[in-house]
Amino acid sequence: HSLFIDGEGRLSSCGSDPMQEGLLGHGDGVPQLNTPTRLPSPLGGERAVSVSAAAAHSLALAADGSVWSWGFGGDGQLGHGDGRAQWQPKKVEAFAGRRVAAVSAGYSHSLALTTDGAVWSWGSGADGKLGHGDQQQQLLPKKIEALVGQRVVAVSAGTAVSLAITTDGAVWSWGWDGYHGQLGHGDGHNQLLPKKVEALADQRVVAASAGSCHSIARTADGAVWSWGN
Predict the structure, then answer these.
(1) Cβ atoms of 43 and 68 closer than 8 Å
(2) Integer Cα distance of 176 and 189 in angstroms
(3) For residue range 171-220, what is the model confidence (pLDDT) as tens digits?
(4) 55's torsion region: left (phi>0), alpha (psi -120 to 50) or beta?
(5) Distance between CA 196 and CA 3 in Å, rounded?
């Protein structure tokens, strides 16, 4: 499926919902949309400023810094404290009193970056992709304590990998390496906690994106770097 934001900050979606879990955000009984169609439920009257579409769930960031999620929630990736599906966007109340600057949806987990530079993760903890030092599921957003003291400016959630960029241009990665090397540490080991990618220590990274089995970064000089399968 795909998500869109129009010039007035309204959300639209199109694609298919094979699991019938509300992936498109249009409520019960909408298994497929062939063209972008506006969602019936606004984000509490706020403009949408950013969206992220994953395999089975969706995230939206509103202008007031609130996070909204919908779709499949069986791994806790919606952040509402349970495993239920959501047929329409629902606010993630765990961020009440905080302002979120960016969101990224992975296959079965989610990441959020708050305006104070902290990173929060929730959903499936398999292979350490939540960055909390274990593999436990998190039904609610939880701050990644290992990144406290690092001011993060961007995050990306892949299938089983998470990436973060800090203000000094460093890249941190954690989760499943699977011997493909997508974490960038050269050892094939999973990482339960965020670890700096030392191979990019002499570079200033300004953007990064995690895929299924590979990762890509862009440096300040306009070069692109890739690693993994």
Answers:
(1) yes
(2) 8
(3) 999 999 988 999 999 999 999 999 999 999 999 999 999 999 999 999 99
(4) alpha
(5) 32
